[in-house]
Amino acid sequence: MNWRGWFDRLVVLLILLALWQAGSMALGTYWLSGPWLTVSRFFASLWDGELIFHASYTIQEATVGCVIGGVPAVLLPFALRKHPVVVAILDPFMVGGYGAPKLAFAPLFILWFGIGIESKIALVAAVVFFIVYFSTLAGIRALDTRLVQMAQMVGANERQVGRYIVFPGAVPSIFAGFRIAVPYAIGAAVIAELISSNRGLGYLVQTGAMNFDTTQVFVAILAATLIVHGFIAIVDIGERFLLRWRPRGAALVVDQGL
Amino acid sequence: MAAAPILEIKALGKRFPARSGREPPPWIIQDMTFSVGEGELLTIVGPSGAGKSTLLNIIAQIEVASAGEIAFGDERFASSEQKSLQPGLNRRIGYVTQDDNLLPWRTTIENVLFPHEVQGTLDDKARTQANELISAVGLSGFENYYPHELSGGMRKRAALIRTLVYDPPIILMDEPFAAVDAQTRTQLQEDLLRLWSLKRKTILFVTHDITEAIALGDRALVLSRRPSRVAAEHPIPIPRPRNVKDIFTMPGFAAIYEHIRADVQ
Amino acid sequence: MTTADLTSGYSESRTIPRRWLVIGGRIALALALLLAWEWGARSLGPLFFAPPLATFQRIVEMAASGQLLTDILATMRVSALGFVIGCACGIGLPFILQQLPRVTAAVEPFIMASQGIPKYALTPWLILWFGIGDAPKVIVVTLFTFYITFITVFAGIRGVDQRLISMARVMGASERTIARKVIWISLLPFFFTGLKVALPRAVSAAIVGEFLVATEGVGFSIEHARQLSDTTGVFAGIVVAVSLVLIINSVVNALERRALRWRPVDRDMQI
Known about the structure:
By secondary structure, chain B is an alpha/beta fold. Chain B has eight helices and ten strands. Chain C is mainly α. Chain C is globular, with a radius of gyration of 24 Å. Chains in contact: A-B, A-C, B-C. At the A-C interface, helix 1, helix 4, helix 5, helix 7 and helix 8 of A face helix 1, helix 2, helix 5, helix 6 and helix 7 of C.
């Protein structure tokens, strides 16, 4: 991209920061903390470990939830590949689960598992499961049957077909699913913390607001946003590495947004 | 030609897949009978839609016949008994399809070694042989390239040696060179003949290109329109080794070409 | 099973036609889930599980007393308001940006970056500003709706633009009005997709927002029940919440099918 594009973006950034700073000075930091305050508190919090303490909690919830929700979501379509009737039976339930607001279950999970980390993990897992299930299913359905025939011609059995043909073919879709799920996962972790928690970035937001400490609120939100983008970057890097074989410009699933 | 045919097709028939209508669907192939000698390169020509691919699929055992019988040496496969197919007849039949069907996520060498990996025979000997085949078709230096980085002709070659690497006695080829430009096609045809002269395999080569059928085959079968059967059989009198590039100039070419073309109409 | 079966679909002649097998299986699964629910209630106790019957009884009570309607209306009020504002911005902004390509290029990365902000996390700060009324929830719903519709319509406009330009050139650049009409018709599927995704999202965002700040509403009833350890109330509220969103989902999908049926726009437009 040309230098004029970079220049424009820099200008926009400076304008946004200036507006932010001006607003903060006009309204007072009780209501709107300023950019300088936020960034300096961010690093201070990072240094003394407080931010790490809370952020790691949220990250833990998101990661473990992604694994607990994501792994069955990937395995199930593979296991059911030879049983399309079962997939058809499950379909309305899965679609219902996908469309239903999983976050509505947050209070129930808190009731069941307490205000500790388990309820947040459960919520994240529920959110991630349906997203990854459908993208994995799509990846398997897009299977090129000619490749399966080729493998069978050279003597591959069912297990080998699954391992050498079906799975690698579905990997791009699985990655797409996780990339879409990441913001939802972090969002679910944060909302569960907002409702009831004694630790985590959502907790920081809640307590910050209660104490009129908007700087803390912004620091926590900034940290959460960075985590979302960081996770997406990790998924992208993993994808680029594992999918070196793809021709450039291959169409990817378009994100529908948060 | 060998005394006993390695492959016999007897009154083979195949219907279209059944739809929910009352009548049985029409035949694609009906009453097809021919035999193939060991080490023979048999070309099969016919109009499109004549079920040439279907025929190969049935021989390769990835599709069930509706009627008739196939005999491989001493083994017989009748259509009514074909409940469980053995695709590739336990690696005794190789199949080079129209699409190269290379696994996009594997490099050239990994694709070529795929049959060995599946069969559990991946050892140094296999690797050496694979590398020899790779240089035999001029793909040296491209071992670690992914299919999307190779040209169409290169992918065809890779698909071809992937089949050769596990040494099946019978190889089916379904218009493998149709999708490349004329120059590459001639080159691939020469490569095929050269490889074939080193290791005499039985090859069934389907094509819609009469020139190709003449250039490559010991014998050319002409299929009729649907429901197709063997309309004619033409031994190719042009002696080997054949000059594929200038096959038109070979004595007897024009005559056999005219014969075959008349039969294809 | 032959490979031909794999490629050509499923053989028609089984002992039971597949369609009945699937329907029967679904009914069986639904019953099994219901039984599991009942068993869960019996073995895990009333604190963790409310039995299905008690849950539905509670819903009936809520309906009879009018509380159900009040809650639903409260939630829908919030989501409708946020949805409308969000759509207006999400649909309007791409059109404005389209006229200012340099601004668009400069601003776009910031919009995409801001998408990573967990929107519910803004709620406590919004409560600070606007108190415990509807405003914080409406703003959050607006944000959700905005991003969804903006991204969809923005992508649509961009896609149309390229094709439109070449088409206009080939046709000899007809009047702007015609061009505008072409843009509109091409954009309709994108509109519908965006609205279709955003509306249920808006409702669920309102519900979740009520966990944090509300005095009434579907979400409020769930969280309120939890705080009183009223498990039956939690279950009842969740059933209402899930049903509400799923019903809206189905209605929106049905509307889309009808709307697209008599439009000449190509239905194959993928997002």
